[in-house]
Amino acid sequence: MLQGEKENINTWITRINTDSKAAISVDCVVFGYDETGLKILLIDCDMPPHEGKMSIVGDLVRSDENLDQAATRILEQRTGLANLYMEQVKAFSEPKRHPLGRVITLAYYSLIKIKDYIIVDKEHKQPKWINIEDIGDLAFDHNEIVSTCLESLQKKVREHPIGFSLLPKKFSLMQLQNLYETVLGIELDKRNFRRKLNSLKLLIDLGENQKEVSHRPAKLYSFDFEKYDSKRKKGKLNFEL
Amino acid sequence: MLQGEKENINTWITRINTDSKAAISVDCVVFGYDETGLKILLIDCDMPPHEGKMSIVGDLVRSDENLDQAATRILEQRTGLANLYMEQVKAFSEPKRHPLGRVITLAYYSLIKIKDYIIVDKEHKQPKWINIEDIGDLAFDHNEIVSTCLESLQKKVREHPIGFSLLPKKFSLMQLQNLYETVLGIELDKRNFRRKLNSLKLLIDLGENQKEVSHRPAKLYSFDFEKYDSKRKKGKLNFEL
DNA sequence: TCAAAAGTGTTCAGCGTACACCCATGC
DNA sequence: GCATGGGTGTACGCTGAACACTTTTGA
Lengths: 241, 241
Hints:
homodimer, alpha+beta, Nucleoside Triphosphate Pyrophosphohydrolase, Arc Repressor Mutant, subunit A, 2 domains, 6 helices, DNA-binding
């Protein structure tokens, strides 16, 4: 359209259907936690010129779904993963980012406990959990997407209690601390960490202990999601680690 | 594509060019500040069924530009505004959000000092600064976009010194405090605010005073962007208001 | 001399940080 | 009895929050 030209409903419809159409995809960085580290789910990429590399899980969005729905559907279709917490992060839109044409992608991340889910290889693309330290050169701009999503995850984990879903319902304080150290990639002081958690008053002491461990058994706790929600509604809550 | 069907390069190209194409737009919430308040730039909407409402400034993305470039171009073309700080916030993607077809939009915001820019009405859509309190019912899902962008702006202003561009180069501490109170929509304590700014050591005392004011003249300061950058690079900086 | 905004200090409570030893259990 | 990880307390410094009066200028 020329600058200053008056638009009408026909020019709009034309433009919507021609000039500016782009393929839209979502790409999802699935972070997985187990007690050995933080990993992400990668699959084989067989699209030229990136054959042989690995990529994160993504696909094109359909015309009858919004992006959140697309992300959920695609992850389920390609890996069997369902009912995940997902968070939209950012659009990646360089015109030449995709070899087969203009594809704008919306990056999402998800965070799960590896043991709770079974990955189904529905497409013979060998989905694998790769430790966050060991990710090599990925297809497309997926390295950039992964690092953007990791930053976003770390910020979120510091500010919201999304980490608790990564632990068993009953967990010890050491498990919790290890979780934060792993996801944030930092070390924390044991005593200070405990005092902090204690001051939040959001853990329920279950009065139970670990069993059959060859050392002093740890006390077990669970997270009080109800109390968290009600405190948050009432306005004042510093969840900040 | 059926689940489990093996993809190849032809199915990909087909899908990229047919099923999943959507029109992509950017919509930009331009926040403008002057000493009377925080405003946003709205234009008349003449697209059915939203004729008569106002809307934020947006348009379709072209195939040869990325989203940041599109946002810059569109704002310049429609309002004459150029060289703005812009920040991508989120995609809005409900399939029926746009009356003329599938349009996924990426929301951006920008923040400027009203006096520094001249708005050019290139399309006879009467661009206007509307106080943030007085925004009525906007076209499309633009009310939702505006409130999402406002939250995002407020978070950014608290954590980064983007507010200083809204003031004259030489400003008083009261002007600075008013700015934060206006943008964040809260009240601040004068003495605590001053102590905080003082402790950051990022203001340069110019040794000058206001003139021709009918009360005690305020001292004037400027913000030390260089020092801010170097402190930030060296790692340790708590800019947090 | 008055109106209007500028400027200034202290106290208190809470929070992050640094740091080292004893405890309970299984083998 | 020893190896292993669990569990605990104190002191210090920084920061945010609350709060009221004096100063300087122009009209």
